[in-house]
Amino acid sequence: MGKENEILVLGGGISGLATSWNLHKAGIPFKLIEKQPETGGVISSSTVDGTVLDFGPNSLRDRDGSIRKLAEEIGLKEEIVEISEAFKTRFIVRDGELQSLTPSLKTIFTTNVISGKAKWRILAEPFISKGTSEDESVGEFLERRIGKEALEYLVDPVFSGIYAGDIYRISKKEILPKLAENEQKFGSIAMGTLRSRKEKSEVKPVVLTFKKGIQQLTEAISSKISDYILNEEVTGVRKTGNGFEVETSKGKYTAEKVISCLPAYSLSSVLKGFAPALSHALSSIDYAPMLSTQVIFNTEGIELPRSGFGFLIPRKENIRLLGAIWKSSIFPALTSEGKIHFTLMTGGAHDRDILTDDIQKVEQHILSELSELMHISSKPEFLRSKLWRKAIPQFHVGYEATRLEFKQAEAANPGFYIGGNYRWGVSVPDCVKGAENLVQKIEA
Ligand SMILES: Cc1cc2nc3c(=O)[nH]c(=O)nc-3n(C[C@H](O)[C@H](O)[C@H](O)COP(=O)(O)OP(=O)(O)OC[C@H]3O[C@@H](n4cnc5c(N)ncnc54)[C@H](O)[C@@H]3O)c2cc1C
Questions:
Q1: E strands of 198-329, at which residues?
Q2: Nearest residue CA, atom 13 of ligand 1?
Q3: For residue 57, which of 401, 386, 423 has the smallest C-alpha distance?
Q4: Distance 43 CA to ligand 1 centre (A)
Q5: Could you identify the atom of ligand 1 that is nearest to the CA of residue 419?
Q6: Residue 385: pLDDT above 60?
Q7: 7, 23, 376, 378: least CB-packed within 10 angstroms?
Q8: How many CB atoms are located within 10 Å of the residue 340 CB?
Q9: Angle between helices 399-412 and 276-283 (to 10 degrees)
Q10: Which domains does the chain have, with CATH numbers?
């Protein structure tokens, strides 16, 4: 089965879909193999009584216009919903209260999230001597540069709430390469950042979604390439004389090139017989779980959330909830009239109990935490959760060695490519950009 000259793309999340779309535009024959009846992977939107729920990604930060360009190509230009400037304010919980952080550098000095002492410690950053150039955790690196309190209250909530990670395990070289480089080059991350602010890009970053949620993006790509999608599970990959053979739940396909956009653990299992060293490296990539809970309240009787994106909670606060996105504030067009919609995040690398706990009990627990933090006394009229058992890949200290394994496997097997969020970066825009770069490389 299959034609020799086709490229086989494995996995139909945003990485595989964006790769396929770029191949399609370039006129390169391909087939996309996705095991689920629906494409999109962790991108999952639905609508309940006029309110759009996103159980996976909730908003996309389009740094360089790639998402807008893709949306225009697939006919979604009119469906883009941009976040309002006014909602760039974020809140962080300190001693059980929400404290604001506005999007400017001076907020560090005006906010109540950290004490005066912690602010002075940040100001001392340029005078702290340079540390190791070797990889180390984001926690070790930033604790040295800006002090423990700023780390616990400004850095940890972002990493645990957004990356579902543990700052003392995440690699500085992977996640903060520019800051790590600035420390080595200028002896200070503040000095380096001030200098690089001058080299601003021409495109203004925009945070956006679509009228029917993020899944509208993956559905639109899928409908453009539906003739080339096979709903089958990949079970094995092996090298043949002049290419590869991909075995699926339904048969065998041969191809000159194979692009994997499978999650690391799936690729690890399909490669066991063919590339054991790579399979082993892939199996060691840790994925943190995440529970996404959608809660809708009637506005009557409760105060509307303050203007802002939502809030994040430092682990130091001993609150189980990681954070909340004020969906109806940031994208009012996606919430039905008279309703308030929150997306709550729980779990992550610090809370793997979520995998075995009774989800209904967890829901009640985090709902009471939300109600206390936001002074809500009424009951929600809608609540639904989705547990992602392996939500977000973790770029732990030493990830460089794993990246080297990817390169070596690709060099040893020309025509075999490894893509996906654990290679290109976890955000949807990172995956879209990675796919674009890979197809350009293949075309060249
Ligand atoms: C709860 C949550 C919130 C997030 N929030 C944001 C956000 O707000 N903004 C943002 O930019 N990013 C966010 N992310 C991250 C982002 O959504 C993901 O990193 C990205 O969507 C991953 O895309 P992917 O295609 O690489 O992987 P996946 O989406 O995991 O896709 C992999 C695909 O491979 C398929 N597959 C697996 N095994 C096989 C097999 N054997 N055969 C065939 N097919 C197979 C799967 O079914 C799946 O469709 C969030 C992620 C989660 C989980």
A1: 206-210, 229-230, 234-240, 243-248, 252-255, 257-260, 287-298, 310-312, 323-326
A2: 57
A3: 386
A4: 6
A5: 26
A6: yes
A7: 378
A8: 23
A9: 150
A10: 7-42+214-285+396-443 (3.50.50.60), 104-196 (1.10.3110.10)
